[in-house]
Amino acid sequence: MSKLIVVLGATGTQGGSVVNTFLDTPGWKIRAVTRNANSAAAQGLKSKGVHEVVTATLHDVSSLTEAFKGAHTVFSVTDFWGLYYDPGNTEKAAASGLPKNVWASRVEEQQGKNVFDAAANTDGLQRLIFSGLSNASKWSRGKYTHVYHFDSKARAAEYGQATYPELWAKTSVLQVGFYLSNLLTAPFMRPQKDENGIYVFSYNFPMTVKLPLIATEEDTGPFTRALVEAAPGKNLIAYRAWMTMDEYLQIVCAVKGVKAVNQNVPLDASSGSLPEELVAELADNAGYFEEFGYEGRDDPTLVHPRDVSATCAV
Ligand SMILES: NC(=O)c1ccc[n+]([C@@H]2O[C@H](COP(=O)([O-])OP(=O)(O)OC[C@H]3O[C@@H](n4cnc5c(N)ncnc54)[C@H](OP(=O)(O)O)[C@@H]3O)[C@@H](O)[C@H]2O)c1
User: Fold this and answer.
1) What residue owns the CA closest to ligand 1's atom 8?
2) Over its length of 314 residues, how does the chain's per-residue pLDDT go in tens digits?
3) N or C: which terminal CB in the chain sees fewer CB atoms within 10 Å?
4) Which residues partner with 203 through β-bridges?
5) Domains along the chain?
6) HEC states along 80-99?
7) Is the CB of 77 under 6 A from ligand 1?
8) Start-to-end Cα distance in the chain
9) If we measure between CA atoms, which residue out of 80, 312, 81, 308 comes closest to residue 219?
10) Which sign, positive or negative, has the C-alpha torsion 20, 21, 24, 26?
């Protein structure tokens, strides 16, 4: 009998990687969850061999409960930035009286709680892999309180732990590291070629800060499989390399044969490309990375890839 893994975010980066890994893992069937099973991305999942593609939304517990039926494992991811950047949410955020990032964090936290509520009612569930991040407010002891997209995920996991001890005993948290693809997708980090042909990379954090770097689209699946195969109760910071951006740049230059430099540039809202509220959030994010670690390094429950004794591609 094949085991069933239900994958949230299957049309996206993290969930897509989980789908690819489990397609290649004998003994598993995959049920992909999407808000629209008729979308091109959803159809693409079917054509590459995903067994079932179903419609459900993180906003609605009953739709998740239905989608989780029969699952051995649920992989969960919530999408702060999708909520934040969706123009359709601007009015909803304004009506709440909150800055849009604070509104998005509240909604994301509720989505995570919905996952725990639905998973707690799933007969036969053996494992919940919850894609979360560290609680910056907590691990910085109140110094960095604007890292909303971290804290929302952490608070949802804390709710799961406090509310559902039995489910929590079957849960592992996957803290996905800093996406390497951020360097291309985040406009303020994208390298610019200067007049001398040198690529200039800009960040708002020091080049000496070590970060858990991950090729998310390739690595999330193998790390998830490792957590499914290991005993539950893990809080894994998942990364391919633990290095500074200076170290990373040396590799880029050697592999690509280009010249490049890193520079530390404070974020600036004056150009209009970055809303004021995100400047505060990303500035706190950088301070938190530097002083307390991306993963909240004082958290005694943290484990690293070397501690997860299962076959992992990285
Ligand atoms: N950038 C980084 O360095 C980094 C590091 C760690 C964690 N993260 C976190 O990663 C998360 C995003 O994950 P990703 O990169 O995999 O996202 P992504 O590639 O943008 O995909 C988002 C996925 O979420 C699904 N989704 C969105 N809203 C949904 C809803 N209401 N109900 C059900 N599914 C929903 C989408 O599915 P459909 O559109 O098919 O419904 C899609 O598959 C964010 O919360 C971010 O904070 C980012």
Assistant:
1) 176
2) 899 999 999 999 999 999 999 999 999 999 999 999 999 999 999 999 999 999 999 999 999 999 999 999 999 999 999 999 999 999 999 999 999 999 999 999 999 999 999 999 999 999 999 999 999 999 999 999 999 999 999 999 999 999 999 999 999 999 999 999 998 888 778 899 999 999 999 888 888 899 999 999 999 999 999 999 999 999 999 999 999 999 999 999 999 999 999 988 888 777 667 888 999 999 999 999 999 999 999 999 999 999 996 555 55
3) N
4) 264
5) 3-178+212-240+292-307 (3.40.50.720)
6) HHHHHHCHHHHHHHHHHCCC
7) yes
8) 29
9) 312
10) negative
H helices of the chain, in order, are 13-23, 40-47, 61-68, 80-85, 90-96, 100-120, 136-139, 148-163, 165-168, 182-185, 216-229, 245-256, 276-292
